[in-house]
Structure formats: C-alpha cells, structure tokens
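Internal QA ticket QA-208
Title: Verify multi-chain structure generation after dependency bump
Assignee: T.L.

Test input:
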Amino acid sequence: MIAPELLEKYGALKKSFDKNEIIFEEGNLPTHYYQIISGQVKMSNYNDDGREFIQGIFYKEQSFGEPPLFLNQKYPANAIAVDDSEVLLLPKNNFLKLLEENPAISLKIIENLAQRLYYKSVMAAEMSTQEPEHRVLKLIDHGIAYFNFKKDANGYHINFTRQQIGDLTGLRVETVIRTIKALEKKGLLKIINRKVYR
Amino acid sequence: MIAPELLEKYGALKKSFDKNEIIFEEGNLPTHYYQIISGQVKMSNYNDDGREFIQGIFYKEQSFGEPPLFLNQKYPANAIAVDDSEVLLLPKNNFLKLLEENPAISLKIIENLAQRLYYKSVMAAEMSTQEPEHRVLKLIDHGIAYFNFKKDANGYHINFTRQQIGDLTGLRVETVIRTIKALEKKGLLKIINRKVYR
DNA sequence: TTCATTTTATGACTTTAATCATAAAACAGC
DNA sequence: GCTGTTTTATGATTAAAGTCATAAAATGAA
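Actual output:
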C-alpha cells in the first residue's frame, strides 16, 4: 500500500466502479497503477469454454495489476469489481517517477510482489498434486492469513461462495460443496446455516 | 541479475553444488540471496505421497528464493541442483544493505519478481481449467520465451524430459507422453528420435 | 564394454472429479 | 410482497486422467 496522499501528490485520481464492472481486460497494455480505496476487486481468466479461474481477490489499501506495468506486457487476466468499489488510478509514468523519487516505496512493492508470489507458489503446488480436500483447506487457511475474514464466536467466517472457492482452486461448485461437507464431517471446519467457519 | 562483481563487493561467496544436491529446504528460514553462475537449479515441492511439483527451473545469471527473504517467511519449496552448479551466496543482511545503497537494483528485483508472477499467473490459469494438450503447449511456449531452449533446423529443441514437463504441469508422465504424441499428430510440434521440437 | 538406471513407450483398468439433471433455500430488485 | 436470480444441495452417470504392469531404447557410470 502506498499512502493515498502521496499518490494524489503525483496525480492519482479516484474512480468508481459498479459491481461487476470491468476495470481492465486481459490482452490490453497497462496504463495505470491501481490501488483500492473501498470495495473488492478480483483478477480472473476465462478459458475457451467460459470457465473462470480467479487469480486473486483484492481489498481496500491493496494494489493489483502491477506486474505487466513493470514488464510492458499485456495483462494476463481481467480485473473486475466484485462489489461497488473506489480505486485510485495513477498514470504509469507518474507512478515510475514516484518510485524513482521515493526509494523506500520500492521495497514496499518488492514485499508486496514477494507476498503474492509466495501465495501462488503454495497454491500451484496444491492445485497440481493434492486432492480437493487439501486444496480447499489450504485456500481457506491462506485466506485467514491474507484475505479479510472476520473472526467471531464460531471461528473465522470464510465469506467466499462455493463458486468462488471453486474458481480459486480449479474445482467445480458441486465438488466444492461435497468437499466442504466432507471437511465438516471430519471436524476440520463448521457449517452454520450454510456459512463456513474455521 | 545483479553484477557478480557488485555481489562480491558486498561479500558474496561462490559455492559449488553437485547434481541432485539440496541447496535449501522447504520449511527453513532464508539466510542468503542466491544467484547462479553456472548449471541449473529447480525449485520444487513434494506432496504427502512423494509426488513432485516443480515451481520453476533457473539458469545462469538468474536468482532464486528471494520472496521468503523479503518476508521473513519459511521457504515454500526446496532448491535442488539439476546439474553440477556454481552459485553465488550473499548473506541476507549484506544483500539488504546492497539494495539500500544501490536503488537501481531494486527496480531489477521488481522486474524479476514481476516476471515470475506473470509466469505463475499464466500457468495457474492453464493448470486449473485447461486440458493436458493446452497445458503442455503453454508450458513449452513459455519455455521458448524464458527458458534456455536452443533453436536449430528442426525448430526450438525443448530439452525437458517428459517427467519434468509432467512435474511442471501437474500431469503424470504417461499422460505427458500421450499428450505430446497427440500434439505431434496435430502438427503442433515435432518428435525427432524422441526429442521434442517446436 | 558391460551393466544399472533413466527415459520413453503402450495397453488394460480403475478412480475420481466433472457433468448433467433437478430442486430447495436465500437473496436482491422492483 | 412478489419475482427472478444466485447459491447451496443431492443423486446418477460419464469421461478423462491416473494407475499399474511391462518393456524397449537410451544414457551414463564403472
């Protein structure tokens, strides 16, 4: 996260996106640095027959879509508002100037990219070799650490739909539903009127 | 890549690893920055029943294992020499000092992490939603751009074993062998005495 | 040059998640 | 409050990759 005041000093502008509105599209060249003020944004791909894979979900104070910005490459995925969201947009050149003039920010960017690479490494290993129960549990446990799940009397409330869990783990909804039930039976999580807790 | 002279100025030492020797292990805390002088290194995970997933393969002048270094987290995978290899090791604190005193290097690190994140994004989407032919082809095409495949009269020589392709895509050897044959039949690649070309 | 190991290969079969069909409950918009 | 959509749910069936067995070719080490 970069302080909003600093971003604004370099010319960042606030933009609002409605729920399900596209922020940028796969295949386009990056033009801005994006940082969320409020709401949530997902980055995802659609394969040939319309099946979705969610690369990640981002919340307030988080940035997204930087890698292609540094590489002059096309976006490998779409960014879509999951809820009504407000986002700060800083044009690429201003962003690079900001980095140059504020070396401490570079370390923040590095740490952020390192964190995301870490998540992708863990999930890639899970998704390639582990069975559904393992995959779902790993996603949930990662989510507790890095997504904004709230803890209450029942434990952490995993506020993802079964479909979202499927799209994040590469499983189908039905499989996720069955897997979650199996995990509950094993006592690894709780289902309280359809909500999942851990 | 950071210039070897600069690394040595900050106290980096050269270390040799035999083929199949472990450089560092999953679960350990990072102590050094690693940059390859010669040979090749893979980062990989083994799941509960011994199945391997290769996170990536790295060659001369490339660094590996940085993310946990920036996050003070444990390594999410093992680093193993694929061939006899020489690696420059720079202790963590010296590396951070180097970064601090050479701001231009930070941008290099950022670009490198961005590149790896880009690869992982593309492969994650493939691995979760696409059929084997698509997955193998994507890996090969990515490899042409970023691994050191050599081009000759037959095209790019994909010098991965079927097993390695399987470990990189989450498929079993037999499936890779059959998939490659199917891709050859479709004219998407060539097999010339067991070697794969594209 | 020989021998052990790795890599590629192929067929038969099995398992597991995907698919398909259907429906109830919950939620959101009007 | 009604209605359309989304989410959760369950059972039956299918397809596709995994598994198992076996072997030839290639490679590398002694």
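Spot checks passed. Residues 131-132, 171-172, 174-175, 178, 194 of chain A lie near DNA strand C (CB under 10 Å from a C1').
Status: verified.
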